[in-house]
Description:
Blueprint: H1 2-12, E1 41-46, H2 47-51, H3 58-61, E2 68-70, E3 86-88, E4 100-103, E5 106-107, E6 126-133, E7 147-153, H4 156-159, E8 162-169, E9 173-184, E10 187-198, E11 218-230, E12 235-249, E13 256-270, E14 275-294, E15 301-322, E16 324-325, E17 328-350, E18 353-377, E19 380-402, E20 408-413, E21 417-433, E22 436-447, H5 451-455, E23 458-460, E24 463-466, E25 474-487, E26 490-502, E27 505-512, E28 515-517, E29 521-523, E30 528-534, E31 537-551, E32 554-568, E33 587-596, E34 602-610, E35 613-614, E36 622-623, E37 626-638, E38 641-648, E39 656-659, E40 665-667, E41 672-680
Parallel strand pairs: 4-7, 24-30
Antiparallel strand pairs: 1-6, 2-3, 4-5, 6-7, 8-9, 8-41, 9-10, 10-11, 11-12, 12-13, 13-14, 14-15, 15-17, 16-17, 17-18, 18-19, 19-20, 19-21, 21-22, 22-25, 23-24, 25-26, 26-31, 27-30, 28-29, 31-32, 32-33, 33-34, 34-37, 35-36, 37-38, 38-41, 39-40
Amino acid sequence: MSFTAALFLSALVQPAAEDRPPEIVVTGRGLEAPAGEAVYAVTIVERERLALSPSSRLENVLRAVPGFQLFRRSDARSANPTSQGVTLRALGGNAASRVLVTLDGVPQADPFGGWIAWPALEPRRLGQVRVVRGGGGGAAGPGALAGSIELESAGPDELGTLSASLAGGSRNGIDAFATAGLELGGGSLTVSGGYASGDGFMPIVEGQRGPADRASAYRQGSVAFRGVAPIGAATELQANLLLFHDERERGTAFSDIRTDGMDASLRLVGSGRWAWSALAYVQTRSFYNSFASVDAARALATRTAEQYEVPSTGAGGRIELRPPLGPVSLRVGGDVRRVSGETRELFAFQGGTATRGRRAGGETLTAGLFAEAALESGPLTLTGGGRLDRWRIGNGHLREETLATGAALTQQLFTDRSGWEPTARGGLAWRAGGGVTARLAAYLGWRLPTLNELYRPFRVGVDATAANEMLAPERLRGGEVGLEWRQGAFRVAATAFANRIEGAIANVTLGTGPGTFPGVGFVAAGGAYRRRDNLDAVSSRGVEVEASVQSGQWSLTAGYAFADARVSASGAALPLDGRHPAQTPRHSGSLTVAWTGDNGARASLGAHYIGAQYEDDLNRQLLPHAFTLDATARWPVARGLAIEARAENLADARVASAISADGLIERATPRTLWLGLSFSR
């Protein structure tokens, strides 16, 4: 709140409009996209698609982007947050994010686990989403192994002075959003809040349920304060504060999950002859996660583990400078990010009571310098650049103890490690005439293991996975060629790519129960023992296609991705060699037809397809393909007032999102209908 108050006062003391130079223009945005990004595969998701989506969920909006994928098919109303990592181009295999997601420049990966807190990222408060596929990241920062997703907040000109919407949905669902914006002293102040709740649905499919199964209720909310103020002829100050709360249940007793978070940032943006930006931010997260086991008859659920507290913090900053060099666009700068966190949990429950405790965690630091140049000469754009990062993993620790006596069962302090990671990217784009553009790009990228991957063992049902404090960073090299044709309101683009992650981190199956295994203890019959390890590599080759056309009041957008991802493995992981990484479909696609009326009326129908994918690394359990339909309609009834109707999974298709070791199938969102009102002025 202090950031917002400071901006409010700053805005009040700005001179009156007639005393200010007319060239002062406050945008509330970061620096413009560099000219060199014309070389890479970029998809822009505009505000119209963000503001009126069937689910009002950002992760579902992004599913229409070719190659976008969460580890699970479920969205953030029913999935465990730890499975909500994001990747592109089937470069998955575990639940950590391999894409750098930023909001107004601030990284959004959870400091401890690397997953994304999607309920905090309300799409209706965003102005634009920019998805850059392909590794390296260049100036975006480390972690952009498979690409980057850049979220930009909307300003008062996009949000309106006052707007609100309220909808009721299936299973007692509530979806509400409101925003208010003011222009003050040449700057602006916006406040927005979102709330969603519902009884949820039963995740276990019909026919496999028992008395222990119940609906997966959820309650989620966020509030954001954003202030922008001019502090000079060509400089503006942007302050952001985001608070969010997320509660959900996984469909049985003792399966509740809670996350609380806060992000605060200050950014200075200079738009003069020497364009520049400087960003500083801090994040806090508090996570609670309870785990349950259900008996064979699914009649009784008992608690098996409890992460009663997982505090984590992230802090960092970034500086970028763009000197005027005539036909050459140059960007130079640096960034730093430090994260720390610890899981505090109870496990080995007997008769409903925990007998052991665990604390595990540490901290990581990454700091890097970057430089990237682009030259536009006639129909040709050339770009190239690199970055050098220093990383450090430190203060790693694991303690397990007997609760009754406090005696240590495991007491480990892990050796600090550090290293250097050079990366680069570059390419060219040639505008051949007739609306045709050809692209060629190559890149290197890297990702540091998360604290969760390094230090926390975990169990899912009868399966157990050990942590690995010696995990090495993942490194990617890849390239792509692309072709785009634009003719009036018609656009079609295709990209062929080949990417390879060396040292890809995966949960590797090393044995089956019954038995006692290092790092996890006893694994029951039918359970798998896994350990996080660096595989030799994961390679992905494929094609992405996007098309759009506008004709009068009608528009059509379509996207398709084919990705053949394969594991290269040796040693203990040899059984995985040649197999597909877990949770990576070969085919996915979407198509949306929309109509916009003269008076603000709008309707759309969207189709989404995801191909079959394996649940596990050994490719023994197959999740079948799924086809779903979504629809939206908006009809104005008075000045500023409209009726809105939305439908998710209109045909109520069964979308399998997980299969347990004993064959239990969990589904994603069934048919969900919404009806509500929206107001804006």
